[in-house]
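Hello K.,

You asked for the raw outputs rather than the summary table, so here they are, unedited. I folded two proteins back to back in the same session to keep the settings identical. This is the first:
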Amino acid sequence: MTLLELVTFLRDNILDDNGGEGVDWTAYSDSDFDSIQLRWENEELVTNINEAINQVYRRTNYAKDILTFDVVAGTRGYTLPAYVTKVTNMKLANGKSLVEKSMSELWDLQTYNTKTGTPEYFIPDEVSNSIALHPVPIADETVSYFCYRLPKTKLSWDNKDNSPELKEEYQIPMLNHAAFLCYMKDEANVLDPGRAATFSAMFDREFPFTSAYSNIRKGRTSNRPVKYGGI
């Protein structure tokens, strides 16, 4: 489905928010939103859809990738792209695999802050989305790593014909989380915790939390799809 088809389905079949018969809501932007009877702007629906897609990725470890970063001699820590959610394996350029360790496992080493050499361990920090290497590298090189990630680009209302990087069978169930976010909007004519809870439960049944995501989430703080035939 394209973004336009997703927003149309969300408005017509889930939110019942299309401005009434004969209204072309697709032509309106946030600058003239008040001139028609819509509770949600097109742009905010797209924002909620993007977040719903992110939730599917996080909960199901949907996308796997092999990425690289350049290691600089004398530098221990490296910030990963914002779309990386979890690193599971890492290799030096010569093919040597690094062993994953937690900071608590290495903190008591007397040489932790001083030892230099060829890295043997990588220490992920999923809160700051960074990686530390130990020992501190003494040579420049390129490191490759296997990871789970979010979409690399977000959907935008400026490009309505784009489609999400998400299986079609997941796309309609994904909209339940977008609807949850819509009904949690803190405005008098929109906020509806009861309906929000209903859509949240529907999304949870389709995309239950993985244990890995649940642990990250704590640290930081089924219906089948309906086939859509087009507009």
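The second followed immediately with the same parameters:
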Amino acid sequence: MLGNPDVLLVEDSNFMSMRVVETLESVHEMNVTAVETADEARNELDKNNFECVIVNYELPDETGIELASSINSFGAEPEVPIILLTGRKLEPLAKDAIKKGVTEFVYKGEHAANDMDVLAHRIRVMLRAYGSNK
């Protein structure tokens, strides 16, 4: 991976989306494209190469897990690593989410008010693990 990673954010909350984009770009030197729905995410993925997708669990048109399963096949290396960003308890979601293409999880609660170091760290760890698709 050379330079700043290209990240697709799928988040329907304008506040959270703005916060994630601004922080990942200014503090963590990432290039972030934000969309609000799973449909918009698929369109962006068809047009552009992203090294990572961050997806909110709850989207207007489907869940982040459903989006992940339409992008990544179970049992194969992911087409693109996907971080599920959720305010829900992770334990009930994790097993199903991993089976359906989610690569990593980040709990949303602590990320609305800080520098998102945990999220940025998880992105970088995934990029090292899975490489770049560029």
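The first helix runs from residue 14 to 26.

Happy to rerun anything if the numbers look odd on your end.

Regards,
P.
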